[in-house]
Every structure is written in structure tokens, then in C-alpha cells.
Amino acid sequence: MKNVALFGAGRIGRIHGSNIAGLAGVTLKYVCDPVADSAAQLAAQFGATVCTPEAVFADPSIDVVAIGSPTDTHSDLINRAAAARKHIFCEKPVDLSVPRAAACAQAVKAAGVACMIGFQRRFDPTFSAAKERLLRGEIGVPEMLVITSRDPGAPPAHYLKGSGGIFRDMLIHDFDIFRWILCVDEGDEADTLYANGSVLVDPEIAKVPDIDSSVVTIRTKKGRLCQINTSRRAAYGYDQRFEVLGSNGMLQCGNHRPSEVVQSDASGVHAEKPEHFFLQRYREAYRLELVHFFECLQSGAAFRTTIDDGVAAQKLADAAAQSLESGAVVRL
Amino acid sequence: MKNVALFGAGRIGRIHGSNIAGLAGVTLKYVCDPVADSAAQLAAQFGATVCTPEAVFADPSIDVVAIGSPTDTHSDLINRAAAARKHIFCEKPVDLSVPRAAACAQAVKAAGVACMIGFQRRFDPTFSAAKERLLRGEIGVPEMLVITSRDPGAPPAHYLKGSGGIFRDMLIHDFDIFRWILCVDEGDEADTLYANGSVLVDPEIAKVPDIDSSVVTIRTKKGRLCQINTSRRAAYGYDQRFEVLGSNGMLQCGNHRPSEVVQSDASGVHAEKPEHFFLQRYREAYRLELVHFFECLQSGAAFRTTIDDGVAAQKLADAAAQSLESGAVVRL
Amino acid sequence: MKNVALFGAGRIGRIHGSNIAGLAGVTLKYVCDPVADSAAQLAAQFGATVCTPEAVFADPSIDVVAIGSPTDTHSDLINRAAAARKHIFCEKPVDLSVPRAAACAQAVKAAGVACMIGFQRRFDPTFSAAKERLLRGEIGVPEMLVITSRDPGAPPAHYLKGSGGIFRDMLIHDFDIFRWILCVDEGDEADTLYANGSVLVDPEIAKVPDIDSSVVTIRTKKGRLCQINTSRRAAYGYDQRFEVLGSNGMLQCGNHRPSEVVQSDASGVHAEKPEHFFLQRYREAYRLELVHFFECLQSGAAFRTTIDDGVAAQKLADAAAQSLESGAVVRL
Amino acid sequence: MKNVALFGAGRIGRIHGSNIAGLAGVTLKYVCDPVADSAAQLAAQFGATVCTPEAVFADPSIDVVAIGSPTDTHSDLINRAAAARKHIFCEKPVDLSVPRAAACAQAVKAAGVACMIGFQRRFDPTFSAAKERLLRGEIGVPEMLVITSRDPGAPPAHYLKGSGGIFRDMLIHDFDIFRWILCVDEGDEADTLYANGSVLVDPEIAKVPDIDSSVVTIRTKKGRLCQINTSRRAAYGYDQRFEVLGSNGMLQCGNHRPSEVVQSDASGVHAEKPEHFFLQRYREAYRLELVHFFECLQSGAAFRTTIDDGVAAQKLADAAAQSLESGAVVRL
């Protein structure tokens, strides 16, 4: 039986809490959140206890800390968990600063604890089915990747102030997908990156300053090519697709729909919009990544998404921000 | 807090047990199954206790019995639960005999207990989305219904001996869908029924005797038309679709796929097969029907699927068996 | 070079005329139509001459007569063409009376002329691709067939007076599809037929008297099963689909769309409606059936759709009318 | 009646010849090709006469020249046709040299003749349906465009020697689509362009030297963003899609399939591959562009694809080649 302390009782914390509570052989023991009501409510729901970070790290019965608190607390909690010899599951990103993220990676390795970063998209049933087909060689060698990643609507401009910008806040997932599909099992890595972008959705976003629409091109050392297109707003909902061209074919990952009803009438043939946003689309992925985390802890197998993956995606986000600012291609 | 006793720790019992255990405000207290190991294992998994039927019915703390035991035990358990003033959730069918099923309906009404029959398809996200659109009038008045219902493979012939035949064992669900879509909210009911069928899949099935492929036509009193086609074997998996033609359009319910990956290669463009069988396709439906059951218990609202629905579907199955045997159209 | 005389310069005559004129090695020489203006206009468009039937049959330079005139002229023209030793392409049906149709079949055989009936659906790119897959054994042995055949809107009731009723006017094509898919290459034939139907679209149709919505079930001697559902009105346009279940899989023939544009917006994901009606959907089929006709004339190969096919479909239409009237199953 | 002289009796010449011959009010009078046999065969097929360029330009009865000869003859023929006061339909590109193309544009304007360039994709039923929806404002203001353009297989390396490189030979069409969708009716134009590419398909192509896989990013003056991805080889056939994100939704243009058959079997659910290559996919587009050409000649309306469009696309191709060579972003 593994005892878990959860940091964060907000939106994503509640999802992880519920998923942890539903796992066989795992107990959600503590919930930590500076917002006392949120912590109490989440703890009550799953028979856990509200706790302070200090008490969590001092309790030898705790095996695992799950970090779903705000981004700017991640690296500190990772470092303290490593120091306390707890295994770590941490929401992305490790840290908005690459050096701080890299230092975390160093710390967990030095401490010898396991640390998985929550790039939940790699656990999405559609995306992981595509990856399995790639690994089985069903389309030969992957050569080109097109990622479409659009939110249903832009957050208020003030939220974006602390977000690190679109590349670190939103495309971080797409950079991880790029590495997962074109690099990690291909002995390849990013060589050059070019980013461009605009404010097309909400002029307030320009004042942050940030952009709301972006395009990124990455070329790998072996000459593979990746294009990412992203918008903060798609009128039809959350648009999460990618397609890979390989030497023998193509894999396309489509959106998920709430139901498979199709209506035909005088105005056309109508299917439902995609699942509304990440909580719906990635509901199963959030569950599966925690199943994977505890299975790997048990078996000693490597995590699908390591802290090094977290650092690597962060570096690509930094490169994109630099390319946008300079208007030039960045060599990695 | 509602306390529940579950009858049946087999395949379907485990599904209901898991779903009951996951509900807020509901406790799975007892598990009953003559196979002691199955009962013990399921009880242990969810912190319940193994129990005898006698003790269940005698325990005043039990509010609800959930019946997922073999078909031939349903009517007896319903009657005993009604006598003990327990609310009842029972897997379909009520009973293979229409008179016994009708007697159960009488008994639960006399006892004043709530009784829902598990026609889980009405809770499938796709089917229920279609029904909601119908109720909103999106395709006008429903006129014709085509139901396709095919299993991935035929069970062994010996299983079919006790099944009551294809109409009572398999099409019972389709008869319920027919009533749900063309009758219950339309002030309509079946008027004539014609069934035909063949043994095309497995000659052993002829010796049961039973058939493995069937077609049924139902005409309602208002002249609406329904066609059902069923096979015990579809090489591509579990095929569960229906389409309704209305005065202003059509609704089609497609199959669900495990993922939305599409592979294009030299041999074509390939999507995944439908979810393998009912445990996969209706996983969410099984969960949602229990959510509905306890919500209705709480609010006093009517169940979507009553014991009268169970009796009515059974009557259509009997009519189909009679039509097949006589080769003639049956008036209901 | 083959010289052709065309009977009929109405809607379907103009289609055949245009297709004949576009064929290499074929000359549209004469056009016959009692409506002089129509005949003149069509003849002028393709460099042909207006002519009388008498002159056509007397002209030894004419090799082929193509009959696209009203239904009640077909059998007479076939008989006269056979007597004049002209090869014959005739629109369906041969005749609304089975005995008269059978007499035509006898006459063309006695005369030794070639005669093809225009069941153009067998030449539709989608339907013929499905048939080729069936013949290659891609889904094993065909077992069940579901045909959906719906017009975009009902014709005026007065038109239906002379139509022979829905089974002879509309389902004649579906009966031919049934025979083509489940019988002709399978050594099988219809054994029993059951038809039902209603007036759900337009009460005026009841006064014809006719029905506007129908369902037909056919069982073959080998136990294969076919269901046909038909309506005179589908709000979303011309709906022409069939699906075949075989021992190793299923083939589905979908509708054709004017374009492959899909629009996603706040109200859903929208594809175009099917091609509007038969002139659009079967435009290519009408062309391909004439290509086939002249290729067979040249090579001596058998037609895909013979006059015997025409008679056989007519018999099924008669059986359906009889079943509807009697309310009973008809043995063929 | 318009008399036409056709230059080029090769693959594309035969398509244009056949389409011209099928038009009402248009006569294919002359065919010119240095390969005498090709010219004779094409002329014979449509009742035309083989002719020399000199005779064509000297014949006052010729209204139109249609140019489907090799690329390096286009600009000379355009100039001579303009001098002879013939209207011009010319296959893309105008010329591989932008200055020579611009000089042609100047020449036709000075001569006052009409000149349309054959960017047939703008006449594709799917692409033009999308454009019409854009113009009707169905997805609001267009913001981002993703173009996927892949050939079924790479031509032999020696063919590529004279092609001008992948940007001038293949992406020229995609540059035109970019302008058509994001610029021409939006008062916008390209501002910066970045191109990258690799040899991933055939190492021989590197020796040309050329590339076989490319990605291009274009940003317009108003900040709209376009990504193009192209490969000389897609194992599943000719892949011709684009999607536009607008402020109120998205339009996606899918591939066309030879038929709408879908096969479901033990290995999945299989649709057909896209139409094989441009002669199949754009067969209807090639016909419609000539219908448009002669309709505009008749009515005096502006062509959908002018010689200025030809020059503009050529400039983008030059910019892409420059970006690839320099590794830098190019300002237009």
C-alpha cells in the first residue's frame, strides 16, 4: 500500500485526488492547500486528512507526493520532496525557468527518488494508440509532424500575466508531443526552431504582452520536420489533433466527441463538437497517467514522462520565445 | 446514505458492484453469491461483507437490492425484495416468462417499492443524446427506425439452451429501444410484428434449437415502422447502431471506437473497430444507469426504465418467437 | 460505328442522349418524341435528326434503339425493336405488368437481339465497388442486406396515379439491388417476402391509393435475409445506401456529397447533405451503364443488367404489393 | 463560336483538349506539338487540324490559344499570342523566372488580351465550396491556414533537374491557395516567409540538388498565419487538404475518394484511399476552369486566376527558395 500526500486542491488537484483515491493499493492520506476550505473539502471527499507541507515531508509513512499546486510552487516542492526521499508525481511544468527546472532534475537524481512529470497527453487513448502504431512500424519511419492545438477560448488577459507566455503555458504540451513522436525513440532531437505569432483573438493580450495565435516550425538533426499551429480560441471547442507522415503512411489523431450521434437535416449532416476542454478530453488520460505512475513505482520500470522530458520541453518553449522576439531562426 | 446489497458476483455483478461503490452517498454493504469465492473477492475489493439472501432481506439497514444474478433468479429475488420493502435495481430481463414478469410488476407496485430494470442502452451517451434530440423535436416526428444489433461472436450452443432463444436473450434490448424511440413519448405502441431468421453462423445453434441471424419488422398503431436486424456474429466486433427517420431529418447513432486514430497507407484509410463487446461499449452506460437509479430514489422522479418496460419488451420477444415459429405476422 | 435512335427527349432521355453523344464510336442519329419541340431541341444539341418510330425501325443503318420514353411505351417499343432486329437499351421498368414484361423478354430472345435494362444503380461507383469486393470474397459469404432508399420529397399525388405504386415505381431498384447482392452470383433466389407500409408523409397519397413509407423483408431459399426501408421524403436529401453483412465482415455504401468541405463552429461539425436526387447521385452511373452497353455489344459479353433481371425485379414488386394488400407473407 | 488553338498534346494538353472539345460554343480548331504523332492523334480525336505556331498566330479566325506545352515555352507563347491579339489560357507557371513572368503580364496588358493562368485548384468542387463559405462569412474572419500537399510518389531525379525546384514546381499551387484564402479578398498580402526542407524520400534528389519534403510559414501584413507542409511521397496517395481557422469556426477540405464504400472486418474499418493523383482529383477542376474561362470571355467578367496571380505565386516560390538557401526568414 502506497500512501500519498497531494499538494493542491484546486481544479487539477481535485482530478488527481479523485484518480488517486480510485486506485487499488494506493491511499490518499494527506491534502495540502493554503486555501483551507478547498483542502478540507477534498480531504473529506476521499477520507484523507488536511496537512501542512512540513508534516508531509516529516512523515515517514508517506511514499509519494503528488503536486498539483500552482506552477510557481513546483520546483520548491520537488526539491523538498527529493530531500525527504519521497517519490514525486508533478504536474507540468517543472518550472518556468529552465535553470531551476534543470536543478530540480539534478536534485531528484541525486536523491534517487522517482519523479514523473504529468504530460498527460501521452496517456490519451488516441495519442497513445498512435504512438503504439508508430513503435510497431505501421507507417515506417516518421518524417513530418503537424500538431494542431487550440483552446476553446482565451483566458482573461490578467491570467496570462503570470503564465510565462503562450509557448511556456500552452505549447509546452505540443513541444513534448513533438519530442515524443519525432525524437525520443528515433535517436533524434531538435536542431532549429522558428516561431511566429500574432494577436488575432483579443487585443488585451497584446498588452500583457503575449500573443494568442502562433506557429512553430522545428527541424530535427536528422532533417525531420514539425509544424505546430496554436490558437487561444476555436469557436467549435477544444481542438487537439496531430498527424504524422511516415515513409509508409500517415497516422491522424482526431478529436473526441461526447457522443456518436449524427443528425442529417435540411441544413446538412451534423456531428457533435469535440469534447469541450482539457478536463473532458483528457479525463481518461489523467487517470491513466496515475495508473502508469504507480505501476512503474511498483515494477521499477521507467516513466513514460520523466523530469528530463519536462526540462527538454521547457528549453523548446524558451527557444520559441526567443525566436518570436528576435524574428530569427534559433539553433538549439 | 443508502445501503445496498448486491446479488451476483459474476461478470455483470462485478460491474454493478464497482459502480455502486463509486457513488457518493451510497454504500455497498453486502454481496450475495452462491459461489463463495466470487462473493468474497468482490466484497473484499469494495469493503463489503458476504451475506446470505435471508440475512439481506432481514436487515432493516438495507435500502436497496441490486440484482445481477442469473436470469432465472430475477423474479424470485424481486418478489422477496418487494416483500421485504427494499427498493430494487434488477438486470434485464425480469423473467423469461411474461406471466411471471407481470406478476413481479404487480408485486412491486403492491409493495410500493421502487423498481428499475437495467436496460442500460437507454443510458448510453450516444443513444441518450439521440433521444434528447428527438424530445427537442430536432428531426420532427419520428417515423421509421432501423436498429442494427450484432454481437462479435456467437456463444457456445450449450449456453443458448437456457437463454430463451435469440429474441428473449438478445433482441430484448432492441425491443426496448423500439419502444423508447417510437412509442413511449409518442402515445404509440406496437400493432403488428413479423420475425424471420436463419442459422447462418453456426450449425450447432440449429440443434439448440435456435437461430443466429434474425430480422424483425414492427408496425405501430399509428403506422410507424421499425426494422431490426441482428446477428450473433460480426467479424468486426460489437455493432450497436440505430437510426431514426423523422419528418424533418434523421438521427444516426454510430458505434464507439477505442480511439480516434486513423491510419492511411497503401491499402486504404483505416479506423479502429468498434468497442469489442458490451462491457466496453456500455461501460459508461452501466455507470450512468446507477447514477440515475439513486438520483430518482432521492428525488422521487420516475425511472427511465421501469419494470413495466421490462414486461413490455418481453411481450414483444414472445411475439417474435411466435412469428418465427408460425411464419406469420402476429397482431399484438 | 454504331448508329443509335433515341426514344424520349424528356428528363431521362436528355441524359441518355448526352451520354450517347459523348461515346467514341457511337453516333446519335435519330431522336423520337411526340413532343416535337423537345425532340427538335435534343436533336439539334447533338447533331441528330428528329424521326418517327416507323422510320427508325425501317432504317437498316440503325443498330441500336435507346428507350427513355414513358413507362407505358416500353414494352411496345421493345417488341417493335426486336421485330426490326435492333439491339435495345431500355430504361427500367420493362413494363408494369409482369406478363407483358415476360413476353418482351421472350420476344428479344426469339429475335436474337441484345437487350439491356437500365438499372443504373449497378453502375454507381460506390455500389459497383462494393460488388467487386463481394466477388473478391473480402467479407466472405454475404448473409444479410439492409437497403435504405429515400427520396428527397414526394411527387404530387396525381403523378403517383400512373406509377404502379411505390413498390413498382420506387422499390423496383431496391429489389434489383437485393438480387444483385444476395442472389445472382450466389445461386440463390427470393423465397418469401413480407411488406408493410404507411402514409406518413402526405395524406393525399392515401387517396391515390398508395403509401409513402414502406418496409420489406425478403428471405432467400438459402436463408439469407434482406430488409429494405423506403420513404418518399427525407428532409436531408436523397438517401441511397446499403450494407451487407458477410461471414468475414461488412460492406457499407455511403451517400455521395457534392464536396468534402466540413465546417466546425459553435453549433457542431457540419458536412454537406448528400447529392440532391438521382440525376446528381447517379450522373456517373448513367454514363457508365451506356459505356458498358456498347462495350458488351462490341465484345459479345453478357450485360450486367438483362431483361430477365427486369422481369425478376417486377415479380418482387408484385409480391410486395400483394403482401401489403393481404397483410400476409408471400411465398415466391 | 470561339475557335481555339491548343499548344501541347501531352498529358495535360490532352485533358485541356478534351475539355475544350466538350464545350458548347467552342471549337478546337488547331493542335500544335513538335511531337507530330501526339499532335495528329489528339487532333484526330476531336476533329481538329495539326498546325504550326506560325500559322496559328497568323490565322485571324483563331480567338483563343490554350497553352499546355512544357513550362519553358510558356512565356514565349504568351508573348507571341499577345502580339497576335489572341486571348490566352495558359497552364501554370507563367515562367520559372519572375522577371520574365512579370514581362509577360505586362505584355498581355499592353496588348489588351485576356489571359488566365490555370491554377485549377481554385476550381476544385471542395476548395471552391470552402471559398464560397468564407466569402459568405460562415466562419468569420480567416486567421490561420494549414495546407497539406503531398504527391503519391516522387518523380525520377532527372525530371526534377528542369523543374525549378520543389517550391516552383510543386508548392506554386499552395502559394496560390495561400493568397486566395488569406489575402485576395482580405486586403492582405504576405509579409514574411520562412521555408525549411529535407531530403527524406530519395537521396538521389539531393544530387539534383533539390529537396523532397518541405515546410513553409508565411505571415501576412495583418498578422494572419499560414503553414504549408509538403512531401513528394505519401504512401496512401495524393493528399490535398487545407483547413482555415476563422474567428467563428473552421473549414476543412478533405480528400476525394473514388467511392464511398467502407469495409469493416477483423482488422478494422477501411475506407478507400484518396483519388490517386492530380489527373483524378482535379479532373472536374480542369473542366470547370475552362468553363469559367469561356464564360468570362463571353461576359467580360474578371478571371478567378489572372496572370498577376501567376506572378505573385512565383515570387513566393522564389522567396521560399531563398529562405531555404539562407536558412533565414525572408521579408517580402
What would you note in describing this structure?
The structure is a homotetramer of 332-residue chains. Chain A has 332 residues and is an alpha/beta fold. Chain A has two domains: 2-113, Rossmann fold (3-Layer(aba) Sandwich), CATH 3.40.50.720; 122-331, Dihydrodipicolinate Reductase, domain 2 (2-Layer Sandwich). Chain A is built from twelve helices and 15 strands. A seven-stranded mixed beta sheet of chain A has the order 12-11-7-10-9-8-15. A six-stranded parallel beta sheet of chain A has the order 3-2-1-4-5-6, sandwiched between helices. In chain A, strand 4, helix 4 and strand 5 form a beta-alpha-beta unit. In chain A, helix 1 (11-21) packs across helix 11, helix 5 (98-111) packs antiparallel against helix 12 (307-326) and helix 9 crosses helix 12. The mean pLDDT of chain A is 96. Chains in contact: A-B, A-C, A-D, B-C, B-D, C-D. Strand 12 of chain A pairs antiparallel with strand 13 (261-265) of chain B.
